[in-house]
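ok new one. same drill as before - structure tokens go in, u give me an amino acid for every spot. 390 of them this time. try not to just spam alanines like last time pls lmao
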């Protein structure tokens, strides 16, 4: 198990939502963002995912993008650009049955030398080549999946399915826009309100520092006028080992989880594949019903044993417009994403990888409403700290 002690050891990377406010402009693929929600930004515009792969196996509705994670790798060359796309059905009821039907994760890769992006080796700035738009496949105006149906009236707008054509017509303003030359500007926010997309929010990363490093960093920053919102809150957390011996009757795995999360309470993503020296360390949210991360099917392409790459945390739910009073609302404890460690070649295709889920036990923090309340408190604290800094 990895123990983070000194500054010279590698650190896990934590993802934080940059701003909880809706964006003025959508994120651009050439900046290779990691993000929550919105339509998927396809690394390869010629091969958007087939809507058949994005259909919930439980309710047959299209699944929606929860998160896409940019994870560039050195080997092989094809993994120079690399994305993981995590889709879920937003109906909580679907997740009570076989979760493999309503949660899926896909890997996409592209080498440095490709048809779509030009990266300046000195500045690392990337621009889009003309082939990006001229050879892009048509995508659904609602969900971004590959589209094969077109609006018969304007012949310009494409859809993956009749459902999404109907949704675009009634909820996203196509009824008014169809015959006009201008396009509606607030389509994304309308689709979010119609529960067809999650709001698009950028996720930025920071290394997870040990307690001693955090104290040193805070001491160094003291007196400095700029308040970095991502500097973790300094609290005096209890030593996790105490929990191991305690007879409190509460879920120790949850307390340990809570202790680790409390150092960076706004983290939504733990990126664990950072260095071969550092074993990915899963944080279970309960002692019960731990998914077996060792017994996962090997990569069907190359046979390698899949390994834990990252963990998505339920803190992300605070950023999604979910009805926390609805017991059928989409909810989860944590998702573990396991992938082929060889980044084996895909040649423009997608590799479906494995996502496993664990829920909070009833004696951990239980309801979605409770956790949403806590997450809101944290956001409020952050805003107050930002206002104080101004
Ligand atoms: Zn479903
Ligand atoms: Zn669609
Ligand atoms: Zn039309
Ligand atoms: Zn493989």
């Amino acid at each position: 198990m990895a123990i983070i002690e000194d500054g010279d050891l590698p650190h896990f990377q934590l993802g934080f939502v940059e701003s909880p406010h809706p964006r003025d402009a959508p994120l651009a693929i050439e900046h290779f963002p990691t993000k929550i929600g919105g339509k998927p930004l396809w690394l390869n515009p010629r091969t958007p995912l087939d809507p058949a792969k994005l259909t919930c196996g439980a309710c047959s509705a299209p699944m929606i993008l929860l998160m896409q994670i940019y994870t560039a790798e050195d080997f092989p060359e094809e993994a120079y650009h690399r994305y993981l796309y995590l889709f879920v059905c937003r109906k909580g009821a679907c997740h009570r049955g076989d979760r493999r039907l309503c949660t899926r994760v896909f890997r996409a890769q592209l080498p440095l030398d490709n048809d779509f992006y030009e990266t300046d080796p000195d500045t690392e700035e990337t621009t889009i080549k003309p082939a990006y738009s001229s050879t892009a496949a048509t995508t659904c105006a609602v969900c971004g999946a590959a589209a094969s149906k077109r609006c018969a009236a304007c012949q310009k707008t494409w859809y993956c399915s009749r459902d999404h054509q109907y949704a675009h017509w009634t909820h996203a303003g196509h009824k008014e826009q169809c015959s006009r030359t201008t396009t509606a500007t607030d389509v994304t926010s309308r689709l979010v309100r119609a529960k067809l997309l999650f709001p698009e929010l950028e996720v930025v990363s920071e290394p997870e520092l040990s307690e001693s490093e955090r104290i040193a960093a805070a001491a160094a920053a003291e007196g400095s006028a700029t308040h970095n919102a991502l500097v973790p809150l300094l609290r005096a957390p209890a030593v996790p080992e105490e929990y191991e011996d305690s007879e409190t009757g509460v879920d120790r795995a949850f307390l340990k989880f809570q202790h680790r999360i409390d150092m960076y309470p706004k983290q939504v993503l733990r990126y664990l594949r950072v260095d071969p020296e550092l074993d990915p360390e899963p944080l279970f949210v309960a002692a019960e019903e731990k998914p077996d991360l060792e017994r996962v099917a090997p990569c069907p392409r190359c046979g390698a044993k899949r390994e834990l790459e990252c963990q998505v945390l339920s803190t992300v739910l605070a950023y999604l417009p979910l009805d926390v009073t609805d017991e059928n609302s989409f909810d989860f404890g944590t998702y573990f994403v396991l992938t082929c460690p060889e980044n084996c070649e895909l040649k423009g295709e997608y590799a479906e990888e494995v996502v496993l889920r664990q829920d909070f036990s009833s004696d951990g923090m239980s309801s979605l409403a409770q956790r949403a309340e806590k997450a809101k408190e944290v956001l409020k604290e952050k805003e107050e700290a930002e206002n104080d800094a101004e």
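The radius of gyration is 22 Å. and btw The chain has one domain: 1-390.
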